[in-house]
Amino acid sequence: MKALGGAFVILAACLLAAGYAFWPAPPATTSLAIGGDFRLMHESGVELDTAEAFKSQPMLVYFGYTYCPDVCPTTLMDMVSASEATDVEEALVFVTIDPARDGAADLLAYTDLFTPALHGFTGDAASIEDVKADWAIYAARHDTEEFSDYLMDHTTLIFLTDRQHRVVEVFRGGTAPDVMASAINAQF
User: Fold this and answer.
1) Parallel, antiparallel, or unpaired for β 91-96 and 59-64?
2) pLDDT tens-digit profile of 102-151?
3) Were 156 and a residue from 69, 123, 173, 178 both cysteine, which residue would form a disulfide, CB within 3.0 to 4.6 Å?
4) Of 105, 134, 131, residue with least CA distance to 46
5) For 37-73, what is each residue's pLDDT tens digit?
């Protein structure tokens, strides 16, 4: 009988723990503070502050790198297509996560493959790390035997900001351009 009582205590503790684990979290009372303006080297070769360069303009922001074999070019193409389908004059911003290989001239050649309206940004490693931290971006070098050079694992989100450059919408990589365009038009 004592064993049965102990089993009930254990069962009750497990039920309480499971109930706590699956209890919904309270709703957020404040928005997630990510994003914001930054000052980095623009693809034109001059340091640029997004607060000044894109004043009162919403931004579509993506973090990637020019050596990316698949995700970055596809996502940037979707971002550009979405922008072209909106009624909004948003700034298109591409920030490298690989400043060791992506200099200003490299970014200019790369972004112009998509559209001259796409602005590439680079900087020294510390500056890029600061911007990545502000935007909650993950990136890590990935060496593999299949490729002669390294790849970068990284966050594949597109951020939409308001006119004060606060993040108001986040799109996953692979989001259809028409879905992004509808969400952008709805925001503005």
Assistant:
1) parallel
2) 999 999 999 999 999 999 999 999 999 999 999 999 999 988 777 778 99
3) 173
4) 105
5) 999 999 999 999 999 999 999 999 999 999 999 999 9
How many alpha carbons fall within 13 Å on the CB side of residue 125? 5
Tell me the DSSP string of 68-101.
-SSHHHHHHHHHHHHHHTSSS-PEEEEEES-TTT
Residue 36 amino acid letter: G
- Give the global pTM: 0.82
CATH superfamily of 39-187: Glutaredoxin (3.40.30.10)
**Residues listed for the chain:** 188
Q: Read out DSSP for 134-179? A: HTT--EEEE--TTSSS-EEEE--EEEEE-TT-BEEEEEETT--HHH
6, two tokens? 């102990």
Dihedral of CA 72/77/82/88: which sign? positive
Q: CB neighbours of 59 closer than 8 A, spacing ≥ 6?
A: 50, 90, 91, 92, 93, 159, 160, 161, 165
State the Cα–Cα distance between residues 121 and 106, nearest whole angstrom.
10
